[in-house]
Amino acid sequence: MKKHIIFGGFDYAVRWEMDQDAIYRGIDYFVDNDPNLIGTTYLGKPVYGPEKLLEEDPDNIMILIGSIIYHTEIEFQLKDMGFEEGIHYQWGIGFCGDERCSRLWKHIEWNDRTQNNNLSTVEQGEYTLSRLRVVSRLIDFTKYDTIVDIGAANERIRAFLPGNIRYLPVDYIRYSEETILYDLRKNEFPRLESDSKRTCIILIATIMYAPDWKWLLRRIGENCDTFICSHHDFVRLSREYRRTQFNNNNVVFNHQIILEMQHMGFQMTQAYDFRVRDTIMKFERSCSR
């Protein structure tokens, strides 16, 4: 089995945000750039300098970047050492756990039926409805005949769609008789029998639930020429939220979404900040298939 190694994070995350039991049971050792930490131990696990990683078989390790603040510098450091993202390392806060090591960050499982911020508040509140209204303003209804709503929940955007639009709600819980059941957490994506040029896919506050967000965007890009995404960028999550309410299965920044869509031949044609919390982005394929 692969060794699991945490690189960085003693500035805050390792001690205060991570599940200490997960560290104790699943982590083999730590790596850090701080000379004052090298040679010490934490929870019985040794702390080494980065050169320790070069002694390992790269196919037999998973490096989990522990630092929130310095993750970019650590990522470049790992790249310079010959390690590849997604193969040898990933950001620890987006690690959902495996058979060897549990999820490191404390995680609140979302349950629509029992959360204090219950379904009626989250999906029918004024904030949510206003955001859906803005999303609908970005859709050119003369160009599309099909709207695919990934993470549709109770399908409240229907109120803002013309009656002649074919609406396909997708979610992992059946909210209505029309809900198409697919679970992004299991890398499930609907098979769409629609003309991609006439299809607009919307993803509203849902990308963070897919453990492999790049896979999700690739599947979206394969099935439409227009994509609208609303995302609460990771930088806007406070420490207290991460410690007490974090229920994401990944961590992704807006610029990563933009770059990934560009790699697939899309360009961002519209973008709006929504109440200094969400960014609503519209992507359109830049060339014909």
Could you characterize what this model shows?
Helix content is 23%, strand content 22%. It has 289 residues and is an alpha/beta fold. The strands form two sheets. It has a seven-stranded mixed β-sheet with strand order 9-8-7-10-11-13-12, sandwiched between helices. The longest helix is centred in the middle third of the chain and has 12 residues, at 126-137. The mean pLDDT is 93.
Query: Which percent range describes the beta-strand content?
Result: 15-25%
Number of helices: 8
* Main beta-sheet annotation: 7 strands, mixed
**Count of β-strands:** 13
Structural class: alpha/beta
Question: What is the mean pLDDT?
Answer: 93
Q: How much helix is in the residues?
A: 10-25%
The 3D shape can be described as elongated
In N-to-C order, the SSE pattern is EHHEEEEHEHHEEEEHEHHEE
Computed CA radius of gyration, to the nearest angstrom: 21 Å
N-end to C-end Cα span: 43 Å
* Poorly predicted parts: none
| Main sheet: strand order | 9-8-7-10-11-13-12
Essential attributes:
22% strand; alpha/beta; 289 residues; single chain; 7-stranded mixed beta sheet; 6-stranded mixed beta sheet; 23% helix; 8 helices
In short:
With 289 residues, the chain is of the alpha/beta class. It is built from eight helices and 13 strands.
